[in-house]
Structures
1.
Amino acid sequence: MLSKLKYFLFLAGGLICGITPAQNLKIDSLRKLVATYNADTNKVITLNALADQYLNLADYPKVDSLCRIAIVLSKKINYELGLANAYNKLASSYYYEDREDTVTDIYLEALRISNKLKYYPGIATAYIGIGEVYEDIQEYDEARAKFDTALTFADKVHDSTDIASALQDIGNLFEEQKDYSSALNYHNKAVSLFLSQEDTADAAMAINDIGFIYLDIKNYPLALQNLNKAIMLGRQDSDLLSTALTGMGYVYYLQGDYYKALKFCNTSYEISQERKQINDLINVDSTLSKVYEKTGNIALSFKYFKDYVLLNEKIFGGKNQNKILKSNLKYITELKQVAAKAEQDKKELIAEQDKRREDIIRNSFIVGFALTLALAFFIFRNYLQKRRDNIVILKQKDEVERQKNLIEEQKSKVEQKNVEIQEKNKDILDSITYAKRLQDAILPPLNLIKQYLPESFVLYKPKDIVAGDFYWLERVNDTILIAACDCTGHGVPGAMVSVVCSNALNRAVKEFKLYSTGPVLTKVRELVLETFEKSEGEVKDGMDCSFCTINTKSREIEWSGAYNPLWYVVNGEIKELAPDKQPIGKTDSPKPFGTQSLNLPTGSMLYLFSDGYADQFGGPKGKKYKYKQLQELLLANASKPMNEQKALLEEALNEWKGSLEQVDDILVIGIRT
């Protein structure tokens, strides 16, 4: 459980992540159960469980509504256990909504009932919540006392989740006090407990905290190791992803690896933009501004710095500080005492003013005479000051002229630098254009594809001049082998990887005489890793692939996939062959790729593709196109001629994209059997 300060810094002012299918199913199930129960304890238990789901999704209005219903019903049927749980969840919701003025009172009510029932999990939860309030106002001794008490009660019932949460809170406390050794000790204990309960989401968040602690103490290898581990463990949590990716980008920035810094920060920026995670955008805008400043791109550096300032002012314009002060119980008492003293001082001041009024009248003549003398003195002094000011103004004018000349000189240098940059850009563009000719040489000619597969089309739209996506074709006797491949990255880096992967496909078929799809992809992975192992540094690049063979006589179809599926349309329905969930490249637990077979009636459609089309941003809300919409488009046009299908795909893509930039290479291959 993160402290509120970290919550604001890293989770973007309230989660806006989408509900996963499993979460949606659980919420629907609980809502149906609530409707079936009468006003009894089962209904209260189900209302609290449903509130817990919405609390995980940060939908605080729904949490508030469900908890209030549970509180009213619990009081009506005198169900104190349900009442304690409802108060704890309501206080947690208020805490993240910045309603600190009532959070502590609600936690104390939950604590009172839990103590009465000797309900130790409820006691532990309440003490954790109260401890976080004290931590926010930097009352660290009080916060530590509350967390230690929570640990005591959680340990009594062996509640590993509450124990881990309290350990993580204590770790956050030590981190804020810069006691990093103690912070790491408590966070590692929390990770072990979360993993023992198979709670990968909270474990990933704790590991993410460990990564940022190592960043604080400048241990960059361990910072990268833990942030990457958090990403792999919590990859379904977009908020954790954007936070960890920005952290990795910042580490690479500190190490001077600006290419990797931009790679991770731009990915985080896309996620934060799509999810409207404002505080994550603040962090990544700040880092991007610094990276672009180091790479000499002053225009982009200024753009991201301006975005950072505007968002920072929007979120932290003083509002949060006032709310935090309101939650400090100690300061509330002191403020009341100060207000009472101020009222008493006011009364005493009025009495004193009455007494002194006579003295003022008596002394007014003396004061008037003194003021006359003072006025004469000030007039003379102002005369002297005006003379000095005129001299300063003349000097300032000279300085302004000098600065103006300096600016003109700098402007001339900038213009000269722009000319040099334009010349360099032209040289780079010429080199990339020539590289495209080389990459085109590895692609099979479209007329050869039409010769072997007359009823087919290829929609190929690189994001840049060269691409990481490529298509591949080979004929062996009566069998046509065809693949749609998506290499890591796009542009020049992606194109370089595509050359390695295309060569590996050619070797697997021509040199090693492999024709079945699964063994071919397994051999390709072996050849790609063999190539990259020659590098001095660790290379994790590779590709995703949808690979198909078609026997033109027997009409038998074999298929294998690395992350990318195969879609086929038969009898007016679109179906899918699921791929192996591993890339053609370095992976922790490599397995041989499987082979799947199909026998389809004449006229069926096969579709092989990369993820570029589905990931394109656009439409009225600037969101991704998504795979479901792509399936509907392909199914609607599957019966049409090949050229018309390709034209309709291009037309739909252009209409969806509008004025937005293409975000990735796009490849779709259609084949009629």
2.
Amino acid sequence: MMRLDDQTVVTGAGEFHMKSIIIRAFIGLLALSFIANSPTSAAERPNVVLVMTDDQGIGDFGATGNPVFETPRIDAMAGRSSSMTTFYVSPVCSPTRACLMTGRYNYRTRVIDTWLGRSMMEPNEVTIAEALSEAGYATGIFGKWHLGDCYPMRAIDQGFDEALIHRGGGLAQPSEPRENRRRYTDAILFHNGQQVQSEGFCTDVYFDAALDFIDQANDDGKNFFVYIPTNAPHSPYHDVPEDLRQHYMEKADQLAELIVDTPNNLQREIDTLARIAAMITNVDQNMGKLFDRLDAMDLTENTLVIFLVDNGPNTSRYVGNLRGKKNNVHDGGVRSPLWLQWPARLAAGQSHAELAAHIDLMPTILEACGVEAPGGVDFDGRSLMPILTGQSVDWSDRQVVLQTHRGDQPVRYHHFMIRDPRWKLLHASGFGTEDFSGAPKFELYDLLNDPGESKNLVDEQPEVFARLKASYDAWFDDVSSTRPDNYAPPRIQIGTPHEDVTVLTRQDWRDGTWEAEATGFWELSVPSGGEFEVRIEFDERPTPGFVVLRVGNADYRQAIPGRAESAVFEGIDIPAGDTRLQAVLTNDGKQRGIYQAFVSRR
């Protein structure tokens, strides 16, 4: 359950973001026209529930061969589903989420990385929530958004009527309210832009809120699109369901057999895996609650339930016959199950081996719902409905490209893969660096005969190598020229009626690290100038010193007494236009960044 907290609200109530009246009106007219002339009436359209877990790998289910992790309700769903068995996601979270939400490669959406302002999505991208909302669906998100915490990038600005989410990439990150203290249980969350205090383990809270939303939409006679992107089983692992953790610790010997690399401390790795397994089984239990509720409401038959993961597993553990984990571009880091349960339209137990990816979900869902694709939007993805419904489809020309690494813009050949129905070319130069040195060390695999990517054929197959490399180059040039200033990060807008208080966190500051010693800054846009208040919070109570607030070219200095938690700057004049805000604390002869800044119009 969830209750409103009596603490200070740190973000104002959001409004639906009107990014373009002409575009949005055009989307609505197209959708209404399509529905009016479609044999699928509003009453016949499916409801949609899309569930995506965080850092859970393809091998973490009984249905995919895991002998220890208990996922009986998801396994049963897999048996009732039509599935895509060659399905790709990005190696890390924000890129996958941008692709899923837009049907377009994340490099088209300005989502480059997972932090430091590069997980913010271009607000003019049209999301699946916007398209379905315009077509009359009730839209709700419950869990992890990770595409922008401030206006105009929030979920409630991007098509969701209802949003219960955490900020940033997860709980226990610098984007959370300081008073949350890294909690997964009884966590501080944000409901439609308002800070609230939840009760219970976070995954339970998300699913309970989603079920309430389904109840309300059904009572209102509306179709619903429910997106449940859990932050479990993402690290840290300190706060998990204790009964399930103890249950898995009784299987310590079995857990040890799932660990791929020989660890330095086996007992510690077993404990970590028990905690991850506890969060995964908790997700499974909540999937059971979802299915039970749909059954009780007689909605199962015409509800499309989709399940996938956002990237590979967060530790080196069982991934079947694949190779790799999260952050990797080998298949263990970028493969996901895709199970689609829809009894009214999709045959149970059918599997399809055609090459597919996260960019295909938006066009697939729109076709399933009888909603026309938004005008003026060029999808990179394709609808999977013809394949899922057994139609004859020529898929032989399909290629999927994935690339993600740290930094402010993509580097050609850095940590990428390109795959066609048989062959895969990659350069595993490492997610954690902004560039690579020397010539690329390409790898080429015949995945039909070598799914474990064990034999590099780059020297033996020069024609295949040249073809895929040329395709990658064409892709890189294409996505890099989507719009002028293609990789400039979106700017946070302050002082708008959509957000009374804008909370600036290290998630979005422009610097090279989250460490407290860093002194990042935020790139802002001010639609109309005026007088602002800036309240600054420190991540720990500092010794005496001073803090300097810089807005544009103006500096404001304030002495900080010992053990102060915050400082307030009043009467800060900020003109309209683009600007930069930075606050630096100096004490004990050292400079350090602040924890968060709260900006509001006076």
3.
Amino acid sequence: MNVKTILMGAACAFAMAPAAMAERGSDGKLNIIYWQAPSTMNLYLSGGTKEQHAASLVLEPLARYDENGAIVPWLVDEVPTVANGGVAADLKSITWKLSDGIKWSDGTALTSKDVKFTWEYCTDPDGGCSNSNYFEGISSIDTPDDSTVVINFSEPKPFPYGAFVGANTPIIQAAQFANCVGAKAQECTTENFAPIGTGAFKVSEFRPNDVISFVANENYRDANKPAFAEINFKGGGDAAASGRSVLETGEYDYAWNLQLAPDVLAAMAAKGKGQVVSGFGTSVERIMINLTDPSPEAGDARGTVAAPHPFLSDINVRKALSMAIDRALLTDIGYGATGKPTCNVLPAPAIYASTANDACLTQDIAGANKLLDDAGWVRGSDGIRAKDGVRLKVLYQTSTNAVRQDYQALIKQWWNELGVEVELRNISASVFFGSDPGSNDTFQKFFADIEMYTNNYSGTDPEAYMAGWTCKEAPTPDNQWQGNNMPRYCNPAYEALVAEMSVTGDVEKRAELAKAMNDMLMQDYVMLPITHRSSVSARSNTLNGVVMNVWDSQLWNVADWSRAK
């Protein structure tokens, strides 16, 4: 079976359980809290999930992934397939037909020109678009009329749903962003903080790293939606306070990413004000290893491939760091039943999950010490290893969060047993996952030796996700420190696998290639997966319509949320 066969038989109809009809705005205010506060509403300038979710209230793609991972139409009436003629028989183009009557929140019509502009905006080499990997293989976009978008690929594209499907690649308005292309992208504060969208809400006030106020979009395509007149989107604080605000006090209606110890979460839920909602998708808490020199002494080459890391360039050191970690213990302490220890950065869907790296599930400090001994890293009088005058001292950073600080403390202890000196650093999540290219504290700039965070991808096909670790995806000064390749990994063999998957249609072969890419990253030890995390959030008992979605934005169907009567 191949992707073309699947596309020919794909059933793309989408039906939501009917809800009682209500007048738009009749349910008043919806209160949402994200303890990681968004720093922009333009997710093309940020790789953060918090920005993706906030933006999804306003900006929409052509199609989404539903709660089951199926592609469903959103700004179109039908998802293109080979069977319905929307995907060319040679797989070199896909044609989308916009639904009639969709308007931007300013009352103007959504057209095919907006879709084409979005592609041009994100692929401008000077723009620093964080999601450019989703547009791989597109050679041109044609707009024969206002409702027709023809995406042309340079080669046959067996999976043509990378661009404009899912929360990572929504449509932005050409008229609003016309003067914000390329190097000007970061300068457009008004546009980036308050984009005009087609979604159920629009921004009325944006305070970066704090609060976003939204009001219902009076031009939204469904006259009876949204039920809420406004949204108070509070950012900042910590996961515990967010959880309490929904589950214990009822002050908020929805809290995202409750990264809390299982006993703490259970005690909150027992208060009876709300319910925990969760699901396993592709989220993995991982340690990223910097293959470049993050020290100021590297000058203009700091954090770039022009300056290799003084000791993490040695695979023996990277492997030893991995061998010393007890992933099962960490996961049990940090997540309980909402986590699974993993050795893969690509843990799901099951067809893509490799078993080739399972040895990492067994901690082996003795073996790690022997590996370093054999590689010539010798302990000094202070117990810290060195070689050729280079000491094994790492700066290990992550965002401020109780679970992550627990992980840091234990990992530091294990790495100390290897003769590695460890300095721990935690940074406010709003800053760490922020989009300011001038900040030295962002996870993308990565001015540390080691960093830890969770990431995932939209949908169920990993092609674009795995393409995120190609050379050109490395954040650099030239791309405003945007990109997905935080380790600055650059391997021609890996690039070849990415290229092969982009033109491969057979499902089993695609799975084989995805596993091979995962295994190459794991066996080169450029990242150390620890925990396959369930997405855990909480909703108030007074809130109806919430459908947990681990394949798209958790706020994907906010137009259907309402207050329980």
